[in-house]
Amino acid sequence: MQLSRKPVTPEQACLKMADLCSRSEQCEADISKKLIRMGLNPLQRKEVMDYLKEERYIDNRRYACCFARDKARFSSWGPLKIKASLIAHHISANDIREALESVDPEIWEDGLMKSAISKSRNLNLSGQDGREDRIKLYRFLLGRGFRSAEAVKAVRKMRDNQTNEDEE
């Protein structure tokens, strides 16, 4: 048995979405999905979205910058994974470019090395026997959204560190 929901008015939706947006950054696509689930028709959704944009509760550029910085800093995502995720959120190419540029290059490097170190703890990267594990680490770093050249450098650095530790 399905319970029927009480219809939501555009005014109620404005208040709910404004409250949500004041607590956390949201993009237009996410809010639009929520409004659809609330049962608003396209005209009502446009009215709510216009209000949220006008009052600056929603700003895709601001969302993209916050998303990129947070994912790079706290989740150690690389620029390619962040870009793909922002594209999935229907963020414009200019906003994505600006968001990726807003991240300090040192944060990218720290995230790359942090990911490589944590993954390489359980891998044997040195010698001919470590080839498969080096490939695993390389693929892992690509999956994290780092560029191929960066991943190769990180794998080499991890291999050299392990080789040096083994020699000591």
Give start-end ranges of low-pLDDT stretches: none
Biggest β-sheet strands, sense, barrel: none
Q: Name the overall outline.
A: elongated
The end-to-end span amounts to 69 Å
Measured as a percent range, the helix fraction is over 70%
What is the CA-atom radius of gyration, in angstroms? Answer: 22 Å
How much is the average pLDDT? 91
Question: Number of helical runs?
Answer: 9
Note the run of SSEs as H and E. HHHHHHHHH
Class by alpha and beta content: mainly alpha
Number of strands: 0
The portion of residues forming beta strands comes to: under 5%
Keywords:
168 residues; mainly alpha; 9 helices; 72% helix
Topology:
Elements: H1 10-23, H2 28-38, H3 42-54, H4 60-74, H5 79-88, H6 93-101, H7 105-120, H8 131-143, H9 148-167
Structural summary, described in words:
- The chain is mostly helical.
- The protein is about 70% helix and about 0% strand.
- It is built from 9 helices and no strands.
